[in-house]
Amino acid sequence: MSTERDSELSFIRPDVRAMTGYTPGEQPRGGRVVKLNTNENPYPPSPLVLEAMVSAASDAVRLYPDPMASDLCRRAAEVYGVAADQVLAGNGSDELLMMVLRACVGPGDAVAYPVPTYSLYETLVQIVGGRAVSVPFDRDFVLPVDGVVELAGKVTFVCNPNAPSGTVTPLAVIDEMASRLKGLLVVDEAYADFGTSTATELIERHPNVVVLRTFSKSFSLAGLRVGLAFGPQPVMAELAKVKDSYNLNRVSIAAATAALNDLDWMRANVEKVRRTRARLTEELTKLDYDVLPSDTNFVLARQPGINQEAVYKMLRAAGVLVRYFDLPALRDALRITVGTDEEIDALLAALRAAR
Ligand SMILES: Cc1ncc(COP(=O)(O)O)c(C=O)c1O
Fold it and tell me: Is there a cis peptide before residue 161, judged by omega within 30 degrees of 0?
């Protein structure tokens, strides 16, 4: 149905007008909240990162940054064991997802992924006028490989470990899938540091695999917006053509490079998160939740058949923010970010008090 507003906005693409747009997790400003809703790291970044940021925030900001963030890509190549021309930096891995779609997907082209997964994929596909096609995971979040391959996407996204389930698909399965897919396979490894597996080695064996990493989670840099893509050099060269010309700023480049120079700091934080994750899982189980095994910095806690919206609202009123998804497959679940031990104690106290 066309409205008066539609005719006023006739210069906007009809499919954009029909979109709802992405709804990011709530980012409260001020006030005291226990923020366990958007999978940020509860621990600060390395002091080396803060030093590098201060030194980059100089008069040099009158000059444009390095368009290819070459220092960062060189350091990332050393750390992740790939060649420098197999690395591309993005303004968050969200921008790298968009670059993939801009480069590969035209109006009506299929983009495939299993669901539920990272909900931004759908919005980005809509923005480029593509066609999002999906196949459901089962209750245990086993990747439906045949179903995904049959969707024959020009691009296939596999979030591994998956969000919001936290579950991981073994490398051998991803490897086999890459062989069977004709299109590009993008393995979104935003949470890989909290688990044990990565598909980075596949970029040497498959011409159609891109692996994405982010500094937002394990490196505690969500506010700076830096991500990395690893892929075969010819693919990276094509993606580079469609990026924003100066997509990373000077401060972000310096910070991410410094973060890669203090991996011990990141690994120590990851270890703390893993320990708290184990305790959180145990305590939630005692509170009658089924908790999926998580390779991430969050857990998906379910009470089969019991809608969790009231629990989400109760927690919110108690000053604890978690994520509730109003989707058929997820209404009986809460996604809870692993915070500090004190934050998790506050969550558990609120859950116990409500029993
Ligand atoms: C699966 C997944 N991919 C990508 C991102 C976004 O990462 P970035 O902050 O690097 O854009 C997120 C953020 O929550 C995520 O959950």
Answer: yes
Tell whether 298 and 270 lie within a shared domain.
yes
CB 188 within 8 A of CB 212: yes
Q: What is the amino acid identity at position 160?
A: N
190 lines ligand 1 (CB under 6 A): yes
Q: Is the pLDDT of residue 9 over 60?
A: yes
User: Given a cut of 90, is residue 4 above it in pLDDT?
Assistant: no
216 lines ligand 1 (CB under 6 A): yes
Expressed as residue numbers, the domain containing 25 is 4-44+264-353
**Burial bucket for residue 114 (CB in 10 Å: 0-12, 13-18, 19+):** buried
Q: What is the CATH number of the domain that holds 330?
A: 3.90.1150.10
Cβ 348 under 6 angstroms from ligand 1: no
Minimum-distance ligand 1 atom for the alpha carbon of 39: 14
How many domains does the structure of the chain reveal?
2
Cβ-based neighbour number of residue 219 at 10 Å: 27
Query: Is residue 164 reached through a cis peptide bond, with omega within 30 degrees of 0 on the bond before it?
Result: yes
- Residue 2 pLDDT > 70, yes or no? no
